[in-house]
Amino acid sequence: MGLFSKFAFFLGVRKKEVNVLVVGLNNSGKSTVVNHFKNEEERVTEIVPTVGFSVEKFQNQNLAFTAFDMSGHGRYRDLWEHYYKDCHGIIFVVDSSDRLRLVVVKEELDLLLQHPDICNRKIPVLFFANKMDCKDALSSVKIAAGLGLDKIMDKPWHIAASNALTGEGLQEGVEWLTQQIRDVVLNKS
Amino acid sequence: MSSFKRDKKEEEDGGGNPFQNIEKTTVLQEARVFNDTTVNPRKCTHILTKLLYLLNQGEQLGTKEATDAFFAMTKLFQSRDVILRRMVYLGIKELSSIADDVIIVTSSLTKDMTGKEDLYRAAAIRALCSITDATMLQTIERYMKQAIVDRNSAVSSAALVSSLHLTKLAPEVVKRWVNEAQEAVNSDNIMVQYHALGLLYHIRKTDRLAVTKLVAKLTRISLKSPYAVCMLIRIAAKLLDEEDTGADSPLADFIESCLRHKSEMVVYEAAHAIVNLRRTTSRELAPAISVLQLFCGSPKPTLRFAAVRTLNQVAISHPAAVTACNLDLENLITDSNRSIATLAITTLLKTGAESSVDRLMKQIATFVSEISDEFKVVVVQAIRALALKFPRKHSVLMNFLSAMLRDEGGLEYKASIADTIITIIEDNPEAKEAGLAHLCEFIEDCEHTSLAVRILHLLGKEGPRTKQPSRCIRFIYNRVILENPTVRAAAVSAMAQFGATCPDLLENIQVLLARCQMDSDDEVRDRATYYSSILGQQDKGLYNNYILETLQVSIPALERSLKDYALNPGDSPFDMKSVPIAVIPTREEAEDKHKADGMIISSGPPKPPTVSREESFAEKLGHLPGVADLGPLFKSSEVVELTESETEYFVRCIKHCFTNHVVLQFDCLNTLSDQLLEDVRVQLDPSEGYTVLREIACPKLPYNETGSAYVVLQFPENDLPNSVGTFGAVLKFIVKDCDPNTGLPDTDEGYDDEYMLEDLEITLGDQIQKINKVNWGAAWDEAVATCVEMEDTYSLSSMSTLEEAVKNIVQFLGLQPAERTDKVPEGKTTHTLLLAGMFRGGIDILVRAKLALADGVTMQLTVRSTDGDVAELITSTVG
Ligand SMILES: Nc1nc2c(ncn2[C@@H]2O[C@H](COP(=O)(O)OP(=O)(O)O)[C@@H](O)[C@H]2O)c(=O)[nH]1
Ligand SMILES: [Mg+2]
């Protein structure tokens, strides 16, 4: 981070740019979540399954987010790690109505948290217990318990129940993430 | 001072190229900044440029290096800089074949190809198609279909061309886009229309009927794009060449009508097509030639070049038609573009009268030093044709060639001159003395070893039969004193030929060979010792077998046999007869080599020497059960078709002859998309005396694939007459019906079926291998002592010329003509054809056929063979 751009940031001349990684199993609603964060005029009307990844940009408060919306398909999960190193935050989307695959979610989460590029960093992780509108959806508390989030000691984390179709719960989550990134990442650097 | 120094150094390094000194490792290191959170587009663009530069210089990246660079590059998608994004597309395309998991950028690219930024769309399509694999293609299919019919012509073109590339990957998927391609053909944009036609044709090209329909439809509407029309002309011409319809096909009319198109490109394409059509008659040729004639006077050099180059080609097949352009060609002789001038002159040489040869040769002499080697070769080719056409002009032409030989020039050019001189010598006995003299002088300072060796070989072959053989020897011996070991060794061999052929020179040759035994090089000394001791025996038979006739076996096969023997010697001495004989290229093969001559088409870098057909068959057959025990492969026949070519199953046969066995190889092609064949085999009904030892089935034959089934047979034992016979044949197999799209069978249950094949013949020729006898007469004389002779007279009533008779006899017997006796001198009514070959089992055959023309052809056939039964087989089969 060059001196000038840091200055510019504090003077509010230029927005600070941060990268976040959006992960989770396929069909959990990642792309729908990210789409919702974008300006009204930039949103797409139809979400198709992501193949590989897609870069999206949105803003929250004074932060310019670059989101790497990853594909959650089995074939691509191994490729997430290529993007771990330089991200400032992680958004982990869980389909709370998909009880069957909650164990798979836990497995993937554990792999993520143990990865050398992640495990020693105090990087904020935001969980969305998505599809809360579905009738057999688990509550965010149950999801947190199922994933064993209470065992995450070295990273700030937060879980928010959400409905990506309506946007319910999303704003609360991203406010938290913005705050964390400001505190944890920027003030330190 | 120091800055001055640096400037100087940069200049020496090649000046302006800023990428001169970049290094792979450095660039890959720099590429890590792609991972930075904030992308600096200018910097990243520069690094990507360097990376692309390296890759285009042929720098190789390992998989890990490429994958790392690739994933770093994917992060650049966060930048919205247009230039950088387009560089990323290029990078993706370059790395797509080396890096792993490149499909990671699929969504990013589909987003760009469907997005609002027009500058991204076409390039994103191209990049996308380079990273896609067959499984991914389904997911992008929808976008490709949309893109093909996109309003933006760049997008549509990119999608069409990319689809064309994708047909290699997944032809079945791309086939489904045919409706979109059809729509794109109607585009107003000339490129889109052209590319759409290209794709449509490619999709349909294996289906003749569909292509015919396509062409019929498109020739009726008038396509707007001249490129598309050119393409259509090519397709139409191909169809015309393949079908045998009469002269007034609508396709021919279409091509003819294009001669009046408003675009010069189309007019040229049409003329070019007409000129090259196999069926074109001189009447149809005339309008095409007049168009080319017109182009000869065009102010545009490209048009003049195209026209004269095409005329140059036609001059071989239709010299009379080109004569009409002689005046225009004369004007082009002085064209400031040397390439045009050269082609004009060489065309005139091909078509001109004998009287104009001297004038044209003078004309060429004025600028031959100014043109490139490539065009000099064109001139040499023209002179070769001329010499064959006007034998009496040999001295002018020969002088010209020898002057060219003395000039500067590369190996290819020099070799083509030497080749031409050799052709002239072989063709025209009167030119021989002068030609050999020129070659003798040439080797005095020939810098190309390979060429010197070839010429020395020729001098050894032809020199002894000249009026003054001793003259040649002086030139040859000079090489022994002055040259490198390779040339010296060749010179020693050449001298030995003189010793063996000219008794009065023998003593001198022995003196020279004795000196050569003191040479510093092993090979030279070995050869001198070898020849000297054979010549010391004073035995004609030895001379014939060990000096005059070179080894007839295939050299790679000999090498392999010797290696096997050395590893596993056994008790018996090495048997030369067990080594397969070298296969003599057929006349067509030899001529094919010259076909491209005179057309300025580079054939690319020289290809590595390929193994002979027999070699590769031997290799393949050796893996079949039981075949390895049959001994060496003696001969593989030409391919025989056992079905019509457009039937459900297409079967061809190659007959592999061994000493006592024949292996029949049936190559079967399944053309039914809804059938999977299994256990495909051929059931034979062999003729008397043959025993079937083994049938080898082809386990699986999916649609559009060729598989081979085999049958191993033993020749009739001690019964040569029955070795020539006709077999009935039936193709047997199990059919499993399947889904044409996936090729997967509907059920596991199949049913038996069979398919009648045409009868298969084992001929005399299948059992005979050609042998090239340099000195046929000597071998014939010597054979009196060792061979059985059979003689018979035949009346070949169906033949009306000697040429025809010669051609048929050579083909029927499968023997090699010697001493150029397959060429019947013009105007003769009698001719003697000399042939040589070997029957399976290493039995020598010499045949003399005396032919006389009178109401058909009468032939007296004399056969000398080491085996009486073989001689009898030949005389009886001919009858
Ligand atoms: N009912 C419901 N459906 C959702 C919600 N979020 C996403 N979806 C649907 O889930 C499917 C998968 O969404 P997508 O964003 O492609 O998931 P991704 O694979 O994680 O990117 C889509 O059909 C969405 O419309 C949600 O909160 N509630
Ligand atoms: Mg997605």
Automatic annotation (TrEMBL), chain A:
Record's subcellular location: Cell projection, Cilium membrane; Cytoplasm, Cytoskeleton, Cilium axoneme; Cytoplasm, Cytoskeleton, Cilium basal body
Residues noted as binding Mg(2+) in the record, renumbered to the chain: S31, T50
Membership in a protein family: Belongs to the small GTPase superfamily. Arf family.
Principal subcellular localization: membrane
SMART domains: ARF, SAR
Superkingdom, natural source: Eukaryota
Alphabetically ordered keywords of this record: Cell membrane, Cell projection, Cilium biogenesis/degradation, Cytoplasm, Cytoskeleton, GTP-binding, Lipoprotein, Magnesium, Membrane, Metal-binding, Myristate, Nucleotide-binding
Assigned GO CC terms: axoneme; ciliary membrane; cytoplasm
Protein's gene: AUGUSTUS-3.0.2_33827
InterPro entries to which the protein is assigned, alphabetical: Arl6, P-loop_NTPase, Small_GTP-bd, Small_GTPase_ARF, Small_GTPase_ARF/SAR
Gene Ontology terms, MF aspect: GTP binding; GTPase activity; metal ion binding
Pfam family, one: Arf
Identification of the protein by name: ADP-ribosylation factor-like protein 6
Source organism of the structure: Tribolium castaneum (Red flour beetle)
List of residues binding GTP: G24, L25, N26, N27, S28, G29, K30, S31, G72, N130, K131, M132, D133
SUPFAM superfamilies: P-loop containing nucleoside triphosphate hydrolases
Keyword Protein transport: no
GO BP: any one term: protein localization to cilium
From TrEMBL, chain B:
Subcellular location, principal: cytoplasm
Residue ranges with Basic and acidic residues bias: 1-11
Keywords, alphabetical: Cytoplasm, Cytoplasmic vesicle, Endoplasmic reticulum, ER-Golgi transport, Golgi apparatus, Membrane, Protein transport, Repeat, Transport
Entry's localization field: Cytoplasm; Golgi apparatus membrane; Cytoplasmic vesicle, COPI-coated vesicle membrane; Endoplasmic reticulum
Membrane topology type: Peripheral membrane protein
Name of this chain's protein: Coatomer subunit gamma
Gene Ontology biological process terms from the UniProt entry: endoplasmic reticulum to Golgi vesicle-mediated transport; intra-Golgi vesicle-mediated transport; intracellular protein transport; organelle transport along microtubule; protein secretion
Coatomer gamma subunit appendage Ig-like subdomain domain ranges (all copies): 616-763
Organism: Tribolium castaneum
Chain's role: The coatomer is a cytosolic protein complex that binds to dilysine motifs and reversibly associates with Golgi non-clathrin-coated vesicles, which further mediate biosynthetic protein transport from the ER, via the Golgi up to the trans Golgi network. Coatomer complex is required for budding from Golgi membranes, and is essential for the retrograde Golgi-to-ER transport of dilysine-tagged proteins.
GO MF annotations in UniProt: structural molecule activity
Region of interest called Disordered, as start-end residue ranges on this chain: 1-21
Record bears the keyword Endoplasmic reticulum: yes
Family designation: Belongs to the COPG family.
Name of the gene encoding the protein in the UniProt record: AUGUSTUS-3.0.2_11806
Assembly with partners or alone: Oligomeric complex.
Gene3D superfamilies: Coatomer, gamma subunit, appendage domain, Leucine-rich Repeat Variant, TATA-Binding Protein
GO CC annotations on file: COPI vesicle coat; endoplasmic reticulum; endoplasmic reticulum-Golgi intermediate compartment; Golgi membrane
